[in-house]
Write a structure and sequence with these properties.
It contains seven helices and seven strands. By secondary structure, it is α/β, with parallel strands linked by helices. α3 links the parallel β4 and β5.
């Protein structure tokens, strides 16, 4: 939070808005709430942050969104974090802040299924506007997931996917084919 807000005011966003609206029918901005990932998947390249994880406060993220909304007419945000919303308390404060500011932002994230099987985390994300989640599923084989040190179970993929879809969230998977031993 000690870092300054990105210099959005130095960028002419009008061409980006036109392109997004023409291609998708709405405008989505990219924003980052964290840097890094604390997990140790054996295939992942972590050349910049290692396993460190740095996170803006939810109040800072809401303030940034409110500032952007006051200057631009976006309807959607793609949170480009390696992994979004690791902590339930953070997500609940984020959802509360968005509601308090009446921001009504829909958003897309990358996340882990072992987080999203937890109702407290999933419910806070849905309440705050989650509309699409990309899950690092990687494989449908438990043997391959274990070899990757992924730290998830195939059944968690099923449970999280069903619960998210039941809440109206679109679910997409990142998959890898041809991992060692597959």
């Amino acid at each position: 939070d000690r870092l300054p807000r990105p210099a959005w005011d130095l960028v002419d966003l009008a061409p980006y808005e036109r392109m997004w609206r023409d291609a998708h029918g709405f405008w989505s901005l990219n924003l980052v709430t964290s840097r890094g990932c604390p997990y140790g998947c054996s295939w992942c390249a972590k050349p910049i942050y290692g396993t460190q994880y740095f996170l803006h406060s939810p109040e800072r993220v809401v303030a940034d969104l409110a500032w952007l909304r006051s200057r631009h007419r976006f309807e959607h945000v793609w949170f480009c974090d390696d992994i979004f919303g690791l902590r339930a308390d953070w997500l609940e404060r984020f959802a509360d802040g968005l509601a308090r500011e009446n921001l009504g932002v829909r958003y897309m994230i990358q996340a882990r299924v072992d987080m999203l099987v937890k109702p407290r985390i999933r419910d806070a994300m849905v309440r705050s506007g989650l509309d699409t989640v990309w899950l690092g599923v990687e494989s449908g084989s438990q043997k391959v997931l274990d070899a990757m040190n992924k730290g998830i179970e195939v059944e968690q993929v099923r449970v999280a996917t069903r619960a998210l879809q039941a809440a109206g969230v679109r679910v997409a998977f990142f998959l890898q084919f041809g991992y060692l031993g597959e």
